[in-house]
Amino acid sequence: MSGETTGYNIRCSDIKAGDILLFHGTKHGLDAFIRWITVSDVSHAALCVQEGDSIVVAEETSAGVQKNLIGDDMGKRQYAYVNRLIHDVDMAPVCNTTNNYMNQPFAYGQIILLLCLLLFRELPLGPRILSILYKIIEVVLAYYIDKIDNELFPGKTHMVCSEFVYVCFSDTAASEDNLQYRLQVYNEFDYRKPESLFELVNDYCRINPDNIITRNPVPELKVNPVCKIDDLDNLCNELMNEIRDGSSSEKTGAKDIVDDRLMMLVHRAGYIMCKLFFSSDERFKTTEYPKSLAVLDEIKKYFITPEDLLERCKDATCVGIAGQDAPVTESVSV
Predict the structure, then answer these.
(1) Which one, of 277, 280, 23, lies nearest residue 163 by Cα?
(2) Are 205 and 253 spatial neighbours (Cβ–Cβ below 8 Å)?
(3) Were 180 and a residue from 2, 34, 87, 305 both cysteine, which residue would form a disulfide, CB within 3.0 to 4.6 Å?
């Protein structure tokens, strides 16, 4: 079965160019939250572009797409599932495709991944959980507003780490005119949840046409978060603990959740997503409502997580787990 893990440890020297690496990540904070909310053992994706004694991966980082060496211990990544394309094709074109995206000012992938998960996944929305969500979303929006104002440029491409890997295969399939390079990812989850923040706001706007978003079609971008970007790990830990505790997580009706503050946060998120993902798309040249929500709806349809690449990719299979901290002990050469 494609995507099913083998339960074998492999050496880093067994990793081949073109392999997809799905990293476990750190034990706490943002990595742990991504694993928790996606019900997964992975939080980050990369593509091997050089095999042998020195393994090099192309991956999305805070500084853009870069090529980095990885060692046997994997460092803070701990370990990685190694997925390999099931088709017998030359992987050099896939590796070369990564050069098209090198050093572009990509969005910091894990933070934008976090924002997407908070908007699209269903969460038990009690009062204390909402207060933590507000802090996290405001921190992320302030971070990207600053980046857009000072660093990011129109026409550049912005993707999360798993989408970068996916697009490298898609681009190669197109350039080589060979569909065997394409990754087919099926998604068994329905992200269009009635209790997700995005759907609550979207539904409210449809039912109540005279709302703060329609009255303010271009969002005011000034955000004054009470926390800083360096606080994200602690905020994610706080949110996980609050949800696991469950004492303040009673589900609340949409009419009690959707207020002006939440609506404007989601509206601003649509604006930021438009700037990051669709700066050259004529459909989203204006970020006025309902375009801001349309942007989020478009992203939701094609949103790919590291977990999707690990467990729901029809064209790749896991050949083993690399790293000294891998959770299994039986070894195999591949």
Answers:
(1) 277
(2) no
(3) 87
Nearest to 128 by CA among 37, 227, 247, 248: 248
Identity at 4, one-letter amino acid code: E
Element (H, E) at 82: strand 80-85
Amino acid at 265: L
pLDDT tens digits, 77-88 = 789 999 999 999
**E strand spans, the chain:** 9-10, 20-23, 44-50, 55-61, 64-70, 80-85, 316-322
DSSP states of 84-130: EESS---SHHHHHHGGGGBT-----HHHHHHHHHHHHS-----HHHH
Instruction: Name the nearest CA neighbour of 24 among 75, 98, 86, 96.
Output: 75
pTM assigned to the model: 0.80
pLDDT by residue (tens digit) across 143-174?
Answer: 877 766 655 545 455 677 888 899 999 999 99
- For the chain, give the number of residues: 334
Q: Can you give the residue range of the structural domain that contains 264? A: 9-322
For the stretch 203-260, pLDDT in tens is 888 888 788 777 776 667 677 888 888 898 899 999 888 887 765 545 555 556 788 8
Distance CA 317, CA 309 (A): 10
Residue 3 lies in a domain: no
| Residue 52 CB partners (closer than 8 Å, separation 6+) | 13
Number of domains in the chain: 1
Asked if residue 331 belongs to a domain, the reply is: no
Residue 65 pairs in a beta bridge with: 60, 102
Beta-bridge mates of residue 102: 65
Note whether residue 210 is domain-resident. yes
| Model confidence pLDDT, tens digit, residues 14-28 | 899 999 999 998 888
